[in-house]
Amino acid sequence: MNGRDATANGRSYARGTMLTMGLYVLGILAASLAVRSGNVHDGALIALALVPGIAILGQIGVTLNYLHKADEFLKAMTARRLIIASMGTLAIFTVWGFLETFAGVEGPAAWAAYCIMWGLFGVISCVERFTQ
Q1: How confident is the model at residue 2 (pLDDT cuts 50, 70, 90)?
Q2: DSSP 60-125
Q3: By the 8 A CB rule, do 31 and 45 touch?
Q4: What pLDDT is attached to residue 132?
């Protein structure tokens, strides 16, 4: 997960992430097209809406497998970044919730939390790389 992990574990993580995120994108595209067409209803829409969520669960599994097989240094560094990114995401959505409640400001959709968390993870990884 550090961009230079050429180990079998790193390659497995990269393949798993590409596979699950490919399913994620295809799921979003399929659901979006189905909603636009207006020809898909009820149960089928629910099933289509679950596909990206299932892909995310798969990607979480890929990440946990990577951490399980990583050496102690990579495990600690990655876990630290994930914790900081997760706490940052919770902070963003909590503040936004207060803005919605008290100021009537419209917030991001709940599904954006996963994207924001990985975005923060990327920023944190870059900052750590260039400051160490």
Answers
A1: low
A2: HHHHHHHHHHS-HHHHHHHHHHHHHHHHHHHHHHHHHHHHHHHH------TTHHHHHHHHHHHHHH
A3: yes
A4: 79
